[in-house]
Amino acid sequence: MACSLVPFCHFQDLEAARDFLCPHLRQGSAAAGAGSARESKPSNWEDDGWGAWDEAEMQEPVKEEEESTSKSQTSYWLQGCVLSLSPTNDLMVIAREQKAVFLVPKWKYSDKGKEEMQYAIGWSGSLNVEEGECVSSALCIPLASQKRSSTGRPDWTCIVVGFTSGYVRFYTENGVLLLAQLLNEDPVLQLKCRTYEIPRHPGVTEQNEELSILYPAAIVTIDGFSLFQSLRACRNQVARAAASGNENVQPPPLAYKKWGLQDVDTIVDHASVGIMTLCPFDQMKTASNIGGYNAAIKNSPPAMSQYITVGSNPFTGFFYALEGSTQPLLSHVALAVASKLTSAFFNAASGWLGWKSKHEEEPVQKQKPKVEPATPLAVRFGIPDSRRRGESICLSPCNTLAAVTDDFGRVILLDVSRGLAVRMWKGYRDAQIGWIQIVEDLHERETEKMDFSPFGSTQGPSRVAQFLVIYAPRRGILEVWSTQQGPRVGAFNVGKHCRLLYPGYKIMGLNNVTSQGWQPQTYQICLVDPVSGSVKTVHVPFHLALSDKKSERAKDMHLVKKLGALLKAKSSNLDLVEAEVKELIIDIKYPATKKQALESILASKRMPLSSLTNVTQTLMDALKNLEMECVDEGLLQFCSNKLKLLHLYESVSKLNSLDVQSETSFSDDDMAKLLRLDEKEFARLKTLLENYKQENVQTTVRFAEDKDGILPVKTFLEYLEYEKDVINVKKLDEVEYVALGSFFFWKCLHGESSTEDMCHTLESAGFSPQRLLALLLSVWLSKENDILDKPQSVCCLHTMLSLLSKMKVAIDESWDSQSVSPWWHQMRMVCIQSENNGAALLSAHVGHSVTSQITDSIAGKKFSQTIVGSDTDSWEALSLDTECWKLLLKQLEDCLILQTLLHSKVSKRAAKVSSLQAEPLCRLSVKKLLDGGKGGFADSVAKWVFKQDFSPMILKLAHQSRETESAEEAAEISSCVSLEEPEVQAGLEKILELLRLAYQQFPCGLELDVLHAHCCWEYVVQWNKDPEHPAGAYIHVTVLGIALMMWNTFVVKRLSAATYLMDKVGKAPKDRLCRRDVGMSDTAMTSFLGSCSDLLQTLMEADVSSDEMQAPVLDTEDAWVSVEGPISIVELALEQKHIHYPFSLKTVKPLALFDSKGKNSFFKDLTSIQLLPRGDVDPNVLSARQQFLTKVVSAAVQAQCSSPRGKDGLEEVPLLSERYEDWPALAVDLAQHLQISEDVIRRHYVCELYNYGIDHLGEEAILQVHDKEVLASQLLVLTGQRLAYALLHTQTKEGMELLARLPPTLCTWLKAMVSSAGQDIPPLLVNESFVTAFNGGGFAPLECLLFTKGLNNSFLSPVACM
């Protein structure tokens, strides 16, 4: 398929448009001119008679020349007109001087009776408003519809016309003037438009819509959105004016930018590339060119608009306008409309606009608006050529290339981003140029799912090719060229009088959202032929971009696509598919394409192994039959390697399909002998593995089709590759590596396949022993559960390892027993890094056994040569590898025991488990323990203790020997853990056994104090993550350094926040404030403050006892002396300094109890020395302290009085609550430290006890008061309150009589006691304690007064008795 020139529209009456625009070319005027010429000649026959034939012969050439001249003028009239075609093909404008014709397409029948689209004149008239102005440029811009039901057609088309007067006017399809704008007083040279395009790639900058206007020394760009809104408003106003009459409305102003182009002599045409961003290198290069060596650049490259001009000096100029460097100007436009009988007049600050009906109104004299000055914009760089003058420039659709024509008849292709000329065509004088962008058509994609943007579909981006179209009018040829360096792909003879139209834009008013559902039928380029009266477009197939040297490659790619479709198709006849595949791959020419095709065949899931082998063999035979010079060695080697892998796959599959069952069964004695273990060691190993298996049960989901030892051939070929006759395994993840190893060894490890045949097959195929050992160990370690269920696999592993060790390059022949073999070192490193400790321990025992066997055989040969006939069966050869195996076995056994402990847990827990405790523990390996430092063992156990939430007592009980365990200890175990279910007890005994076993393996790493320290630290770390979780279980068992580290790292910040919050609020803060400032709830903060008190008490006790105790020595087990890693917590704790104790208090407003020095000493490092207050204390501070302590005592006594009132109305004796009994003593103790008199607090305590009716406690507290006289004066007030309540509120007959006999002074005093109480005093009895208080305080006058007045009744009977 080649290029084609397809007509899509014809002109209905192009001569009428020509006659209107060019009256001098009318046929009538030409005929009249010819007739007048004939009439001027003599007509008598005498003059014409003789020699008439001769004259006729002489006049024939003259007539032919006149006809040709007239015909040429008639045909070339279109070259002198301004043409513009809408990209949607709904409007064409032809303008010349002051006149214009608007052509609209209509469907009509042609002369042949065929329906076709024809252009008909829709409007014609004069466009000039100013005297002497002419049309210099025109554009037809389709505007998008705002209706949701639009199917892609534009709402209407606006005609933009530029004049030589500098005005730019906008019209409707009917010739109605919408608005006019004078942006510069120079003639308009060019109008160009840019509309929205969906970016092809994510990194491409979206370009804004704009209309650019070129003047001789300036460029004006109007924002597309502003223009779109203004045009819609003006058109709506015109429609309303036509229906309702004159109406003035102010439309939205136009936003535009005006740049004054400098350093250019002449500008003829321009191209607005749009917004671009330089890469960092270009940014630095540009900054250096402009600012010199010391130029500074910004962190991010600035965005700028790029403009390219053509003209002279320079021939091509590149301008860059920084975005945001200048504010856009706003034009003040006015809109006025008039009816058919009235004229319209518009006058505004910077523009005018009008509407006329067929220009019937008289021109009105008006003053030109003010023109805004341009912003200077200097040329950044250009292509200097003093003799060359540019004529036009055309930007490619992707904004990367531009084609420029000049007066030398050249067409130059520019790289827009680099500013370089990349190609030149000669011999194209007066050329007209345009672009065609073709998107690759992928037939397999459904049309419904196609993305209607010009850049492909949603299923994947299609390739895009650009073609340059050049029309040479002097030669009458239209050519299509492939860019950038492609050949000419099409040429057409079209005549010398055509016009090539390339809009370069589409529909205005779209965006990234509205453009998704649009299906605009736009034409990229068209050729107007005035002779034939047709409009044609160019169709270019995409494959022409792959023409010339790439044609064979294009054919090969077509065959590859056909091959891919064949491999995807479902067919039951595999032989037929195999034959077609062979034929296709033989037909492909290029070796690289052949390799690509073979790779796609081998990656097919539908092709069986036999077909793959046959196709590969066929291709290899075809390559061998070619001449040596034509054979591609790389492709031949590739086929050979793939064929070898296919044969290997076939051999391994056959071996795995053979069902070989081992007849011999191994007993425990045979297994122990094979592993070189005695009966006790083998029993211990078996017990450890059984415990490990019970505690490490991992449930996994497996499907029926996921069988071990099965690997598809496609996957097999993807995993392996040949290189110099050696098979290498590609970089695979762990699952893929295990799958490949299972394909080779899984059947062998189960005894279902021949181990010797498998090793021989793999060795002959090109596998190295080291690679086979790695594959074998990966399978063994990953299938731990299956391995532990089948002890028979240990014997298979021993056999397999022995066979691998006997390969040629496995163990170096120069290996000495006193050096480490790389072969065994590789195996040990795999076991060290494995987290499957059970399988690793078994493989280490097998490795140790095989190593000892090989070492003994080598030593036996050497020893037999020196000593002949001696008995050497009981001897064991020593080697460095054997000792390394013994060390590894001890480490793996320790790791296995520790792993078993960490995975053990109590079956059911009654307490609620937090989210932190529910997180699983990571699995251990020897590598992790070696890198975890000396505290790695205790740290792992501490994490497990936190998950299980065990108390310190369990750890302590597990440290005791099994012989000393008694029934009392068992009872203590059940009480130290809050468990409810009976099933827990059995699980707890199992955990104690595992703990004792771990203590035996790690006597130093799991020493009790070390373990307690790590547990305490783990709890506080987890508490810091979740402060709602309690963390005080291990505070009392911690050491000094750990407590100090806890205080400085986690506690002091939250404690200071809580203290400042309480000091700010002045009371117990609410839950919301606690969570905001402290990060915990109010209930959790109460527990936190109590834990802080316990921690400080522990700190003081530990600091006192630390002077009497020696620093502990941290040892490490012999098997773990090579541990490396971070310093342990215990080592950091031993490095902590001694504590300096400033006094601290936590209460409602604690900071108010101290002066500035005391406040500054809070929340500092406990090891630092602070300046504490000395000498006299401020009386205000002492008053605040005394008031605080009295409030504490009052609140404690109030909380103690918790008994309810009895049913008979009598008051029961208040009971003491145990949780509040220590508060008064604490207040007295604090009074001594706060320099407050202790007797004041004691007297207040006594008064509060009597005030709340707790007389029996008040009687005891009186004994501790020293100043009895002051206490008696305080108790007198309470006595008066009780008497006043009994006499004045009881209102009994006896009470009224007694009150009547009292003197006025005493009555007044009793009434004053009622008012001073502020509330009703409860009817408490005046018991003997009051009497004792009065007697001790010297209140005999009051007693005598009462007796003399006759106050002797039941209420005061105890007093009377005294």
UniProtKB/TrEMBL annotation:
One of the record's GO cellular component terms: cytosol
A Pfam family the protein falls into: RAB3GAP2_C
GO biological process: establishment of protein localization to endoplasmic reticulum membrane; positive regulation of autophagosome assembly; positive regulation of endoplasmic reticulum tubular network organization
All residue ranges annotated as the Rab3-GAP regulatory subunit N-terminal domain in the record: 77-501
Record flagged with keyword Cytoplasm: yes
MF-aspect GO terms: GTPase activator activity; guanyl-nucleotide exchange factor activity; small GTPase binding
Keywords linked to the UniProt accession: Cytoplasm, GTPase activation
Keyword Transferase annotated: no
Record organism: Sphenodon punctatus (Tuatara)
UniProt domain Rab3GAP regulatory subunit C-terminal: residue ranges: 772-1316
Recorded family membership: Belongs to the Rab3-GAP regulatory subunit family.
Localization: Cytoplasm
InterPro entries: Rab3GAP2 (IPR026059), RAB3GAP2_C (IPR029257), RAB3GAP_N (IPR032839)
Protein name: RAB3 GTPase activating non-catalytic protein subunit 2
